[in-house]
Specification:
Blueprint: E1 2-5, E2 10-15, E3 29-31, E4 40-43, E5 47-52, E6 58-61, E7 74-78, E8 95-96, E9 99-103, E10 107-113, E11 118-122, E12 129-134, E13 139-145, H1 149-160, E14 174-175, H2 183-195, E15 202-205, H3 226-236, E16 239-245, E17 248-249, H4 255-263, E18 277-279, E19 282-285, H5 292-306, E20 312-316, H6 326-339, H7 346-357, H8 363-366, E21 370-373, E22 376-379, H9 380-383, H10 387-402, E23 409-412, E24 415-416, E25 424-426, H11 434-449, E26 455-456, E27 458-459, H12 468-478, E28 485-486, H13 502-532, E29 537-539, E30 556-558, E31 562-564, E32 574-579, E33 583-588, E34 596-599, E35 602-607, E36 613-617, E37 621-625, E38 639-645, E39 649-656, E40 670-678, E41 683-690, E42 697-703, E43 709-715
Parallel strand pairs: 8-24, 14-15, 14-28, 15-16, 16-20, 20-23, 23-25, 25-26, 27-28, 38-42
Antiparallel strand pairs: 1-2, 1-3, 2-13, 4-5, 5-12, 6-9, 7-11, 9-10, 10-13, 11-12, 17-19, 18-19, 21-22, 29-30, 30-31, 31-36, 32-35, 33-34, 33-36, 37-38, 39-40, 40-41, 42-43
Helix pairs in contact: 5-10, 6-7, 12-13
Bound molecules: ligand MIG.
Ligand MIG is lined by residues 178, 206-207, 243, 316-317, 413, 428-429, 487.
Length: 716
Amino acid sequence: MKVYKIGDNILKYRFGTPFPTDAVVKAGEGIEKDSIDYFQIEEKEELKLLYKMAPKDIVFGLGENQRGINKRGGKYISFCSDDPNHTPGKRSLYGAHNFIIIDGMENFGVFIDHPGKVVFDIGFNHKDYLEITIEDKNFDLYIIEGNSPREIVSSFLNIIGEGYVPPKWAFGYQQSRWSYPDAEKVEEIADKFIENNIPCDAIYLDIDYMEDYKNFTVSEERFPNFKEFVEKMKDKGFRLIPIIDAGVKIEDGYEIYEEGVEKGYFCVNSEGEPFVAAVWPGRVHFPDFLNRESRLWFGKKYGKLIDCGIEGFWNDMNEPAIFYTNRGIEQAIEEAKKAEGKNLNIDSFFGLKDEFRDISNNIEDYKSFYHNIEGKLVNHYDVHNLYGYNMTRSADEGFKNIAPNKRFLLISRSSYIGMHRHSGIWTGDNHSWWEHILLNVKMMPSLNMCGFLYSGADTGGFSDDANGELAVRWTQFSIFTPLFRNHSAKGTRHQEPFAFDEESNSIMKEAIKLRYGLIPYIYSEYMKAIINKDIYFAPISFEYNDEYSRRVEDQLLVGDSLMISPIYEENSRGRYIWLPEDMLLWKAKDYSERKYEIVEKGHRYLDIDIDEIPIFIRKNKVLVLGKHANTVDDIDNEELVVIAFAEDKASYTYYDDDGRSLDYRDGIYSKIIIEIEKREDDYQINVENHGNKDIKRLKLEIVDREGKVTKKTINI
Ligand code: MIG
């Protein structure tokens, strides 16, 4: 075991010869040390790290996973999986995010940098023990110390590198559905947004836009003159976001298939032939995204669609999902033949059934193909969790090749730590279930801790049918998620904001408009989090360390100023809330009607009507609010409403930039610093403008401890 010091409070313990994942961007200095802090090690066939948790310890992290913000009580398996049934017992979803934080008697973070299977048993096997099992013994273990979870997260974000920033328009509302079958339908959807005056910035193109599910092709029949169509839609205010799948169709004459075979860019089987699996298009090869040349080659292909005016993509099926292989089908048929005519009992019958179920995403298939890493073949199974990450990296590298300083929208389904430098994620195939609103709420801070700030769930739920109330309540939560996309599966009920009864439609519309009003705050907080290596969504215990705050699972901090308490139960018209301090409550219906009330610290039951979104402004904090427009680009930035809950003073730093380039990385952005201090009967207000050329006026609404509102306008 070698030990390295990475910065002041981070040690890396190297076991064996780990596969380089490029998750961490900071190198360290070798030091002398022969024992590991915190953990006991058990080495058998696998390696186990053991830690005894104190009764009140909380374990945060693990990104995209089931269960609570506090991960205690569960077992989680990092092995990227295409599993569309996110029921509570599931242990693997699409991502592998091996970072946790222990917060309690001792405070430290742990990152297992290993691209194969890792099991986190967090008080499941034995309620007091954290057991981390690493199947093969080559990995890096990072231990990060800090005084608080926030400090630990920040140190972690610092070593995994600066997060992805989408173009500003990607903070607008986005509409998706599998599938809008043709250009006509896409335009019809766009026109409905226009007719109903509902803001929307993007419409997604799911697999049906392609010709026979071939990546980087567009069906001439369903989307004729694609380039003109993209332009026409952009003129109407909508960007189109096509999907790209991992598998490349095997078909003579298909350029990408032929080039890939010729140049050896695909993953291979044990004979060195391109590995064959089947997904949407039938049989496919998988590009070898772990190989640098293949990655660059595939990345450039995005240019075909970028040339048509496309500015955003979603990368799907990149766990990679496998529907079947010949091996799987043959094995199942063989078992079926053996069973034919037999009197099957409980074991043999269900065994046979499972044979067929297990044709998809089978471990044996993952073990039967290889990546070419600098001339050496590496079995896919050992590096499985890096595949989606590197597909998405390939896209990002492609974009940088084509337009080095332009931001593109990019989200991926599968991911690994480090991919957050290249893109955001959506959380995959959830259901139109109330439980999945709550899961969405809990997942957001966990994802943030792992670097994935630009994230969100399929609002309204992917599978199953949403009713109006579910779509409303989900939308009311999603207005706070940086990625705000409504998506649903083929065959399910439509769930666009105009798909339901009049009342639900109108509430969704107002919520979306409110989202646009919140964009100045959301964008400012998002960007400050990126630049300062901080998070956007946090559990409330990150700021309040009292007994109750440590237990709250269904309220979140959004940026530095806000707390939210989403409704996630059907027929509910209110809920219990824990207030760790007095806060200013605005039950928002739309952004122009603002009534405030002070809610005092304590356990409170709050009435929340179907059209209300409770927004709490923390003590001495500030919310900035703009206006809506039908697209982000059209938002009028001349005036900002500044809502302050000033017990004695409040301050805010409002960040903005051009929203489309990467210049912010060179410090090219503007800031307005607002400082409010309470005097006897009035407020002293200080505003410093560092380079913001859009905003002309600040309309302050300062609320004091008694709820008295003082309004002032300041020209800047
Ligand atoms: O097997 O492209 O998660 O968002 O609509 C399903 C069709 C494949 C899964 C994605 C989903 C998308 C769907 N895809």
